[in-house]
Design brief:
6% helix
Length: 397
């Protein structure tokens, strides 16, 4: 029905795109024909797919190794394995000494990527030479870092460490440019807004989520409050916390209008990112026992949008705006630490403590047999608005 309406010019092309993307996400399954080469010998903490072609994926593991995979099926066979192109392993002079917590591609081309680790460093890598082009050192463990996907005026990397201060490292000058102060405990997760290049969200072990404008001297724009300011001011301890536990995951929706946060209070919350208001969507219990950052993902271009959240040894799929849990993707043998969404083909990749990366691919459509006459097709395939309303007088006799 959507195809017919699209061809007749009755419908907007974007509607067909959204409907098909949504169908593909709802049919995600563990694919028997797609394997990701098993290279890692320890748990996988972080994954990232480059946004330029959507073809190359980075993974970082607990033993400090980083692997780059090519997701493209060059053999054109139905069954194939995503090959590892290279590994930064033990023998590499610049390898991280301890667990790699975050890897991220440079948002504008594949010639550079970044990694941060419990060895108190953030490294900037040249993809072509596989050398560390720059290394930033910190006083404490690095939990998370993020580069803005939309920045044109700055090259700042936000870094969350064991210190309550959020560090901003400038790629242009190679120095730590300035510090955002306001959290009381370690900063577990950081994310730039995909809408405003100077706006940064940070989540901390103190239960708070802060939004910052990095151009302002005071820095902090607001501290998100799960009670929307309705709790009495007398109990100031409870006021202005986003979660009653450590905030270890946050992710903006692709339009930047909403922010999704996860805490060790087993709750996930959706916030209006411009007003800072808790939208009060109820996702139920979202099991979260991670002591460090949790990397979850949000779909792109679907209607409604979905969140893919590591939940024990599964990945839970939620509709963001209603809070409904659609399904649980089961396949890992141990705790899932991270997942990443591939928006071009609506694929999901998840990394786990079991050392595996699994590919969740949309199930193919069921083919319609050729000899089926149109009359026997189920009617719901045709949008009633596009059905013929005329009849010939011969039939009416």
């Amino acid at each position: 029905g959507l195809m017919a309406a699209r061809q007749a010019g009755l419908d907007d092309p974007a509607r067909l795109r959204r409907a098909e993307r949504t169908r593909r996400v709802l049919s995600l399954e563990l694919n028997k024909d797609r394997d990701v080469e098993r290279i890692h010998g320890s748990g996988i903490n972080t994954l990232d797919i480059e946004p330029v072609e959507g073809r190359y994926m980075l993974s970082g593991a607990s033993d400090g190794d980083i692997v780059l995979y090519d997701l493209e099926n060059l053999s054109r066979k139905p069954s194939y394995t995503c090959k590892a192109l290279f590994t930064v392993g033990r023998s590499h002079p610049d390898v991280h000494k301890f667990s790699v917590e975050t890897v991220q591609w440079y948002p504008h081309d594949t010639g550079m990527f970044t990694s941060s680790s419990f060895d108190k460093t953030l490294k900037i890598w040249d993809t072509n030479t596989l050398q560390a082009a720059d290394i930033f050192h910190f006083e404490g463990t690095v939990y998370s870092h993020h580069m803005s996907p939309v920045a044109t005026e700055h090259c700042l990397i936000a870094v969350g460490t064991k210190s309550p201060k959020v560090q901003l490292c400038d790629l242009k000058s190679g120095s730590s440019s300035h510090i955002l102060q306001g959290h009381r405990q370690e900063v577990l997760t950081v994310s730039w807004s995909p809408r405003h290049e100077y706006v940064l969200a940070t989540g901390s072990a103190d239960g708070r989520v802060k939004l910052w404008d990095v151009r302002r001297a005071s820095g902090c724009l607001s501290t998100l409050d799960q009670y929307n300011g309705e709790k009495s001011k007398a109990s100031s301890e409870a006021a202005n916390t986003a979660h009653n536990g450590r905030v270890n995951g946050l992710c903006y929706t692709n339009d930047g209008l909403h922010l999704l946060t996860i805490g060790t209070d087993d709750r996930m919350r959706l916030w209006n990112s411009s007003t800072g208001e808790n939208t009060l969507v109820n996702y139920g219990k979202v099991g979260n026992e991670s002591r460090k950052g949790l990397k979850f993902a949000i779909s792109c271009g679907c209607n409604p949008e979905f969140a893919f959240v590591p939940y024990g040894s599964t990945v839970a799929v939620y509709t963001i705006f209603t809070g409904e849990r659609i399904t649980m993707l089961r396949g890992h043998y141990s705790t899932v630490n991270c997942c990443v969404f591939q928006p071009h083909f609506q694929e999901l990749y998840s990394g786990s403590k079991d050392c595996n990366i699994l590919a969740w691919i949309p199930a193919p459509r069921e083919p319609v047999p050729d000899d089926t006459s149109e009359k026997s097709l189920p009617q719901q395939h045709v949008n009633p608005a596009y059905e013929d309303a005329w009849s010939s007088s011969d039939d009416e006799g």
